[in-house]
Amino acid sequence: QWYQRRVSSGINAEYGGYDVVGLDWTVDPNIARDFCHIAVQGNLDPCALYAPKEELTEKVAEMVRQFGVRNYIANLGHGIYPDMDPESVKTFVDTVHRVSEEIMNKGDPFNQLYT
Fold first, then answer.
1. Which of 30, 42, 65, 96 has the fewest CB atoms within 10 Å, i.e. the most exposed one?
2. For residue 53, what are the CA distances in angstroms to 3, 61, 96?
3. Which one, of 62, 87, 60, lies nearest residue 76 by Cα?
4. Cα four-point dihedral sign 59, 61, 62, 67
């Protein structure tokens, strides 16, 4: 099941049986993890894909580090724009894979086992 809901103070913790909460780019990952103990998806601002490669790489890396790798689906916080450069999408995906592997290889139980 899928559920998406955001309120001004963060996200609604009453997700009633849903498996995943989708987050837009305005939700702080720390707040999301405090309130949600199910999988979360998101939340990079899609406009970040217009940034230079180095800046995009850092934004994506920070997002993955903040969410961790357990119960997390790295994604944009909204849809992709039609004029997006496919190379930016490739940078996004490659960075998610690289940083996720780094976290898992460190053996950090917080990031691997976050529930």
1. 30
2. 32, 12, 14
3. 60
4. positive
Residues 96, 60: Cα–Cα separation, whole Å: 7
pLDDT band at 96 (very low <50, low <70, confident <90, very high): very high
CA dist 29 and 9 (Å) reads 13
Burial of 36: CB neighbours in 10 Å, binned 0-12, 13-18, 19+:
buried
pLDDT value for 56: 98
49 burial type by CB count under 10 A (0-12 exposed, 13-18 middle, 19+ buried)? buried
Determine contact, residues 79/46, Cβ cutoff 8 Å: yes
Q: Per-residue pLDDT averaged across 18-27, rounded?
A: 85
114 token code pair: 């976050």
Q: Are 64 and 86 contacting, i.e. CB atoms less than 8 angstroms apart?
A: no
* Tokens describing residue 72: 């997390």
Name the band, by pLDDT with cuts 50, 70 and 90, for residue 115. very low
Residue 109: CB atoms within 10 A of its CB come to 9
